[in-house]
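Q: What does the predicted 3D structure of Copper-translocating P-type ATPase look like?
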Amino acid sequence: MEHSYSGAHCGVGQPSAMGHGSALVYLRKFWIVTFLLIPLFLVNKMIAGFFGYELYSFAKWIGFVIASIIFGFSLIFFQHAWHEIKMRKYGMMTLVSIAVGSGFIFSVVSTFIPSLNVEFYLEISTLIWVLLFGHYLEAKSSSAAGNALQEVAKLLPKKAHRLVGDKSEEVDTSLLKEGDVVLVKPGEKIPADGVVNEGTANVNESLISGESKPVEKKEHNKVIAGSICLDGSLTIKLSRVGENSTIGQIQKLINQAQNTKPRSQRLADKASSVLTLVAVITSLLTIFVWSIILGKPLVFGITLAITVLVIACPHALGLAIPTVTTIATSLAVKNGVFIKNLAKIEVIRNADYVVFDKTGTLTKGQFGVSDIVTFGSMAKNDIAKIAASLEQHSAHIIGQSILQYAEKNHILLDKPKQFRDVAGKGVIGVVNEIDYFLGNKPLIKDMSVLTVEQDKKINDLSLGDNTIVILASKKELLGIITMSDEIKPESFEVVKKLHNLGVKVAILTGDKEDVAEKVAKELNIDTYFAEVLPEQKYKYVKQLQEDGNIVLMVGDGVNDAPALTQANVGIAIGAGTDVAVEAGDVVLTRNNPMDVVRLLVLSKKVYVKMVQNLFWALGYNILAIPAAAGVFVFWGIFLRPEIGALLMSMSTVIVVMNAMTLKKINLQTV
């Protein structure tokens, strides 16, 4: 790809990745044109007169040949201009082509019709020279901004050690399939998502999750593609490879983000199209006013008109927003934040409310089993065994806590049959040919097995911040497991910082009113909604919106999907090794609510850069076009085409450099 833009190209549409190869193409052309400009400079009439040497009659033909060769290097601009015209999105390449083409054609005509006695070979060639260098700087700067897709692709190793029987074979990572078993040695990267079959090692997952602390991995633990095995060997059975792996899903997120535009970009696109029309009309009026009305030589009017076209090329306007979003995307990815829809950046910065799904976000979500109450003759360990056996197929945090309790107490589990997850209530399954029901009171109450005394006992155990899980068969209540959760230490700082940013905080929870109230008071939360089922959460988000609030919903990306969709911006937090591509507009890999604060801070800083770049790009053209049209000639200000080209390129560099200051932001210190 020789040119650095896709879609409408150069000023209309978002830039694609300006790779290192693209920059080298422009740099090579620039140096060739630089070499050709030397003889063209020497055969120019104005230069010869200034230095006092005489030109031979064939000098103009030398100039014609050299300028024609240089003009050939500008044909890439015409190719993209034709694409813009076909798309009816007239942008920078349209202006460049008109400016270069009109100047070169006028010069050729002058060469073959001596009476015109003027040519712009040096000026147009200088313009092409500056444009090539400007494009090189853009490509180089954009490449330096970082291509997030390429950065993510680098996380995977090119080769992997696949185990076939007792033998190991080295294969390309692309050839791996689900179910393959691979060996990962110390210092090597894990090629795909999977589960540890054998071995123990500390693994660095920072490139994926942003967490710097190594994580110990042993048998049955899940591992993430791209993470690094630090100090041991692991035999891993692959569960998700290629586009289904964590890396593949991250690439989908980034690709989706690159295909969206913030509102500021759409404004810039519109401005670029309008600017093209304004420049063409202004250049024609310039010729008419100076040559027809004011009686100046036609050459003078054409010179000013060409300068208008050159200086109006919206390089800066075209890059004002895309360069910011490119760097913002890269910065976010490095901090474990994946913004699927860049249009949401401007919504995030204006948030009135952040609504958290309480469990596992503001609280640890690590429910410890505090007590087991039995009914009848069943022992506590038997209650735990049945409950943990049922929860083997559950991904809920409460189920995982029960499993941890069983593991800690060395309780052997049975294999459940006919397992079913009842959303917001619990689980159902068969263990040792007996039907069991494990969950909250609404699940058990539907079965009509509770006595008045048992119902009172459940109510008593539910007081405070306890969470209860009830086990029953079809005939009777068997036992109650009481659990409790803790507020994350960082949650206090999160709520405080959100308030400092002018954002209110609410929580949604299925917990009892008194539990929700207690957490809300401790954290100084503005609003809470208790005893809410997952499918009902969106109603409370909608309620806040109907009161005129812009709402960010923070949830796990699975049970909270309706609420995430209803919110102005849905944020899936704690996705970790299972990046939920479909859930929400933003995905945070870490289960850390502070990342929500970082997202808000980033959105505000990104918006400031967008506004600054738009202000510079539009302000530059508002002043430059009248100057190029000769409005300030009576005050001694006259812009020649080559000076206009230089100013145009400088404006581009300023916009890019301003955007790149975003790279200095350290979100981890927020």
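A (community wiki): The structure tokens above were generated from the sequence. Confidence is low (pLDDT under 50) at residues 1-20, 144-149, 576-581. The chain has four domains: 20-145+261-327+606-669, 154-253, 337-363+487-589, 368-484.
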